[in-house]
Write a structure and sequence with these properties.
Length: about 140
């Protein structure tokens, strides 16, 4: 890459993204379940349940993967999921800053403003290739 001045916002976001931290995708859920075993109170009372049970779920290649957690693990995993969500927001902000930088480069090179670069904005009107047919032919 050539010696291009990196905008301060892009550099700051890149530095933030380069800091390693434990994070993960997915969601943590807390469940109370009925076992329906004969003689168990959960089968006899509508408000009785077992739990809480915690699980981490995420989609991998189109299928849901789940992992059971104890209460202590669930607290740690919730923090890791939150860190992952914050990372994703930083990635989006980084993309936006880089796109603004790219638009600024186009403006500097005389290619036009971002509004002019929208689909079809720079096209010249097409010329008619043949004369219109008369209604009588």
């Amino acid at each position: 890459m050539s010696d291009i001045a990196i905008p301060s916002e892009v550099g700051a976001l890149a530095s933030e993204l380069a800091k390693p931290m434990p994070m993960r995708r997915g969601s943590v859920s807390k469940r109370y379940v009925k076992c329906n075993k004969p003689g168990c109170s959960c089968g006899e009372r509508s408000d009785a349940r077992h739990g809480p049970y915690y699980s981490l779920s995420r989609v991998v290649k189109g299928s849901t993967r789940s992992r059971w957690l104890d209460a202590e693990q669930a607290a740690v995993v919730r923090q890791q999921v939150e860190a992952g969500q914050q990372f994703r927001k930083k990635i989006d902000a980084y993309w936006e800053a880089c796109e603004q930088w790219a638009d600024a480069q186009l403006s500097e090179s005389g290619e036009g403003s971002p509004e002019e670069l929208k689909k079809g904005a720079l096209k010249k009107p097409s010329k008619r290739r043949s004369s219109p047919r008369s209604k009588g032919s």
